[in-house]
Design a protein that fits this description.
- The protein is of the alpha+beta class.
- It has 3 domains: 131 residues, Cupredoxins -  blue copper proteins (Immunoglobulin-like, Sandwich); 142 residues, Immunoglobulin-like; 116 residues, Superoxide dismutase, copper/zinc binding domain (Immunoglobulin-like), CATH 2.60.40.200.
- The protein contains 4 helices and 28 strands.
- An 8-stranded antiparallel β-sheet has the order 16-15-18-19-12-13-14-17, with no helix packed on it.
- The termini are far apart.
- The structure holds copper (II) ion.
- This is Blue (type 1) copper domain-containing protein.
- InterPro entries: BlueCu_1 (IPR000923), Cupredoxin (IPR008972), ET_Amicyanin (IPR052721), SOD-like_Cu/Zn_dom_sf (IPR036423).
- Keywords: Copper, Membrane, Metal-binding, Transmembrane, Transmembrane helix.
- One of its GO terms (biological process) is superoxide metabolic process.
Length: 489
């Protein structure tokens, strides 16, 4: 998989006090489900991020956290008190969701099936946004020293931090419109609000709250007001200062996937409002994935995603790819000049951070992200010699490229074989469970046969006693007959 989306789906869910929610990690990444309840954020790189905090009941005031949820794992929480609760994944800045808890007995706005539909739409939308990432890769190379070139590679890439919000009428008004949010530079967000159905000459306040439009929240940004024009429309554009999504990741500027809503009001009355839903999608790839350069050139990798951490790691032949988290994976190694062999590692690159290597030896070099190698996050640098390439060098190069494609072919074959084995195993499991079911059935039928036998036995013995009684009766009547016959004589 090359595109991954970051969010909780559905982004907003409304339940009643006493209800439970099961959060399932349906991804290849690790996540947490963490309710901070206004307490300070947890450092994603501290061990506290990985451990479960609190029980499985949330009263709205304490910190509860699932700890590290591996792919396929789930976490269930029961909500005891009405309120609007924001939760997040500690590892992925901006991965935020909302639970609205109404008093027990309040009718539900949606069924589970409807929420599933909303979740499907949100995921589909963000994944199709994600596909567009591959069209945006276009960073020009820049001149380096002594006639060399500095090339740029995106280590992962996320959809632009933008969100489009539909504003729907409230309090019986006719005011509709849209709000467009966009991070325009680190620390700056621009918001354009376009409204119609306004009273000409009237001034409307526009604000962003943290919470959910159906349940209220806390004022976060005040935007420029909108004045109704003669045709009932109006616009305002505001640039506001924003904080990083995660204070522990300074470059994490973005729009949270959920937890904001835009509120248009007249006096104290809300006349139009809408939730900001901005699930981001990331390409878990090095873009461009293959780059051809010349000896002496430099490659600079930059993490262009507010919510991801990657590494750029060259692992020499014969060495196993290190597991992320081990010291060898975390400590930068190799220095700034790549001489064609050996272990080179950027260490974890946070959002906005870069890593550069200058290549001095012609060759074909494959590198990997130690966190996302399981998703196929590999890249290749082809280093050509300077000056004209002779036919022998070209032949060597094509041999190396062939070997490389052979290797990747083998990897694909292996994974295909593994999935075949998986399929066979699951069919064996299926057969086993069928056999179990048959065995159970057999046992049941044996048991019922036993019961039948008992019934038959009981009947037979009943019949036997009846028969004995009958025989006795017959004997008695015979005797009586004999006696009568004897008397008649
Ligand atoms: Cu990565």
């Amino acid at each position: 998989m090359s595109v991954m989306t970051m969010g909780f789906f559905p982004e907003i869910i409304t339940i009643d006090a006493g209800d439970s929610i099961t959060f399932i990690n349906n991804s290849s990444e690790v996540h947490t489900v963490t309710f901070l309840s206004g307490n300070p954020p947890i450092n994603p790189f501290s061990p506290l991020a990985d451990v479960k905090i609190g029980g499985n009941v949330y009263n709205g005031t304490t910190v509860v956290s699932s700890g590290m949820l591996l792919p396929g794992q789930s976490y269930t929480l029961t909500f005891t008190n009405p309120g609007v609760y924001i939760y997040q994944c500690i590892y992925h800045a901006g991965m935020v969701g909302i639970v609205v808890v109404n008093p027990a007995g309040t009718p539900y706005p949606m069924t589970q099936a409807q929420y599933n539909q909303v979740a499907y739409q949100e995921v589909t939308q963000s994944l199709s946004n994600g596909e567009s990432i591959f069209q945006q890769v276009n960073i020009p190379a820049t001149p380096g020293p002594n006639g060399t070139t500095v090339w740029h590679v995106n280590a992962g890439l996320t959809t632009p931090a933008v969100a489009s919000v539909q504003l729907t009428p409230a309090s019986g008004s006719d005011v509709t419109g849209t709000a467009q949010l966009a991070i325009v530079s680190p620390g700056e967000m621009s918001v354009e609000v376009d409204l119609s159905g306004l009273t000409p000459g009237k001034t409307y306040q526009v604000q962003i709250f943290t919470g959910a439009s159906e349940a209220g929240g806390r004022l976060t940004y005040t935007l420029n007001p909108v004045v109704g024009g003669s045709n009932g429309t109006g616009t305002s554009i505001t640039t506001v200062k924003v904080e990083p999504l995660d204070p522990y990741i300074p470059g994490s500027y973005g729009i949270p996937a959920a937890s904001w809503y835009v509120n248009v009001s007249s006096g104290d009355t809300a006349v139009s409002l809408g939730d900001v839903i901005a699930p981001a999608a990331s390409a878990m790839r090095f873009l461009p994935s293959t780059l051809t350069i010349h000896v002496g050139d430099t490659v600079t990798w930059t993490v262009n995603a507010p919510d991801e951490v990657h590494t750029v790691t060259f692992v020499p032949q014969g060495m196993e790819i290190p597991e992320f988290g081990t010291p060898v994976s975390l400590i930068p190694a190799g220095g700034p000049v790549f001489n064609g062999s050996g272990y080179y590692n950027s260490g974890p690159l946070l959002p906005g951070q870069s890593y550069s290597l200058t290549f001095t030896v012609p060759g074909v070099y494959t590198y990997v992200c130690l966190l996302h190698d399981n998703m196929g996050m590999y890249g290749t640098i082809v280093v050509l010699p300077n000056g004209p390439v002779n036919s022998q060098q070209l032949a060597q190069l094509s041999t190396m490229l062939n070997q490389l494609s052979g290797l990747s072919g083998r990897v694909y074959n292996n994974s295909a074989q593994i999935s075949q084995v998986d399929a066979r195993l699951s069919s064996v499991y299926g057969t086993l469970s069928q056999m179990n079911a048959t065995m159970n059935g057999l046992q049941n039928s044996t048991a019922s046969q036993g019961t039948l036998m008992q019934v038959v036995n009981a009947r037979v013995s009943g019949l036997q006693s009846t028969l004995i009684v009958l025989v006795i009766l017959v004997i008695i009547s015979l005797l009586l007959n004999v006696v009568l016959i004897t008397r008649r004589r």
